[in-house]
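Ticket #4471: structure export looks truncated?
Reporter: QA, pipeline team
Priority: medium

Steps to reproduce: submit the single chain below to the structure queue and open the exported record.
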Amino acid sequence: MSTVLFTRTDPALGEFSVRPVDPSADAELLHSWVTHPKAVFWLMQECDLAAVEKEFTRIAADPFHDAFLGLHNGTPAFLTERYDPAHRELAGIHTAAPGDVGMHFLAAPTDTPVHGFTRAVITTVMEMLFADPATRRVVVEPDAGNTAVHALNKAVGFEIQRTVSLPSKDAYLSTCTRAQFLATQGDHR
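Actual output as written to the record:
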């Protein structure tokens, strides 16, 4: 079992923690998440179990990309990735500044949604990223059609900079500084 790297207590929903993905041990669980119809924007719908394990093994070996499994009260509940936008995903599209960190997140599909859960997940991910003093700004590139994540991003301080064309999607390049994130946290922490 991997070591927990970050923990946050949400006053309404309890403990959220993050640990590195173990590609072989977590592949089956992650496969069930990333191929679920609700995870269409993760762009892994057609992947089999071997392809999911191979992708997370590739990420684990990449010095510019990390994947983390998120736990809610000890149970796997979300996936997040951190990447260097100067070298991955947005290389050649976004001029990365020192302290820029790219991010993806996916709440596990569920038939029993909990009010405020996804907001608590993105807040946990943002707090984890900003816990590193070198992180000055978080950069994301959600699919232009993913209206649910646009609302969540705005709620934690992201501002859309422009639409960009990536190989697999048209995306809203959005950024959030530490100050923008902190300004949104009031009573929602």
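Status: closed, not a bug. The export was complete when the record was re-opened. Leaving a note from the reviewer for reference: The two ends are 28 Å apart (CA to CA).
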